[in-house]
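LOG
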Amino acid sequence: MKKLLITGASGFLGWHLCQLAKQEWEIYSTYFSHSLEIPGIKMLKVNLTNFQELKHIFSDVKPTAVIHTAARSQPNICQTYPEESHAINVTASCNLAGLCADNSIPCAFTSTDLVFDGLNAPYRETDPVCPVNIYGEQKVKAEIGILERYPMTAVCRMPLMFGIATPTAKSFIQTFIQTLKAEKELNLFIDEFRTPVSGTTAAKGLLLALEKVNGRIHLGGKERISRYDFGRLLVEVFKLPATGLKGCQQQDVKMAAPRPADVSLDSSKAFGLGYQPLSVKEELEKLAVISSSDY
């Protein structure tokens, strides 16, 4: 079997990608601070910010393709610790792309919808970037550096993602569900819009992009939805008490990192290649069938 190196197995997206990709590939996956085991996958503890360790993986594993999901992806943390997050989000990402270029192997990199300022949605791949926080700035720098070093890379701009909790990571819906079940107040933005997908759908998109894309591609969902309306769908599908669900505006919540209002992605390019996200309601219905013990 072909060898696929996936960075960031302990992250939400990396774990979902490992589950899906192991059906077709021999998977080697990295983690750093959160140790875990995934059946059928060879786990490697690696500090991706150490270039020697990174080179050692390539000489040791000899991957035939790489998908790089590892990142410091919480905007508030990047805003507070810009140097630490730059090391993994920018430097390590560019080094990884350089090693893929040296070995002439397919590479996919996970960027973000937060490269945009939220004023001109929906965004196509060709629209100018203008991030409003440090996390978005770092992903823009990574995109540019990666494509300079290795233009064949699939730079995948990922939307907001949700799904079952993994052994070492949650998505935002776990907190939503717990808060609503406890009938505590859950304030969600009525004026922040995204094009969300499940972790499984995002993983399918990445594998498709690895095979078919050079350059930038958007892997958003088919629906533009506010956080609040997402919460309403969650209440409906999971049959949760709605008493605590309240709408609020971005300006009502003080956060370290500024947030763009509407970073909905136009993903028609990916849809044309065979990327097929379900509607948000359908995605949630699929998750609701999975044992509630996963939440």
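LOG (cont.) second protein
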Amino acid sequence: MTASNHPRDESRIRLDSTAHLMHSISSQLARRLGHIALDGSRRPGPPALVLVAHGSRDPRALHTVRALMERIRRLRPAVPVRLGHIELNEPLLPDTLAGLGGAPAVLVPLLLSRGHHVKRDIPEAVAAAAPHARVAAPLGPHPLLVDTLCARLIEAGWRIRTTEAARRGSGIVLAAAGSRDADSAADTRRTARLLADRLGVPVVPAYASAATPTVPAALRALADRGRHRIAVASCFTAPGRFATQCAEQAPWIASAPLGAHPALAHLVLHRYDQTLATPTSAAPELTSA
């Protein structure tokens, strides 16, 4: 008789399987009882977390946002997670909000600064269809956003440990979508300062549209300062036309969009928790870290 089919081993396997089954049943029961109050009434579950993506014609964008959504679900399985797009992709945000049926929700914009979408489009959608929903601050600026930017740069080939001479010749262009809103530019500049402090090299914010400097202009500005080893840091949540355009202009390396990085998932949950902890009578502090 071999060790694999010894009666004691088979018994142990059965016991392990039974223990696993009992643990699974107990966990499910505990989750269900957690929604029941002492008087037997059903406690309301946590508000839904609605990810608000911009939308893109690039099919990689939807795939990336769904991957981020799944990571968030794994981190916080008790929270219902939904997705709504501002444009170009389904489900569109109004349809997602209508599907909530009036239940409480927190909308977390997958946007990296304040701007028209955060200030106007998303609040107007909430006012029209979801009276019990609240809007969180955008994802940037925040240290967890910088964590994600750094990780993507390192993946692209950026070296944290290098010589002082190499550091003096290096720089980064932080490439963002761009907006005519002054607060959006201020947020991107703050993210650039945080990234510069983290990596110890100059970081110049630049934009794909609607704002200046452009990425080529920012590259020239760094080169004029003697910085010839220049990386482009992609400050985009997901792949798309602007992200691709900015990456193609990089003279050296360009990082991938932020995507479903663990730090970004934790940042989404931080914005969700931050909003729930803020009294509803208080005005949201969109720049809070």
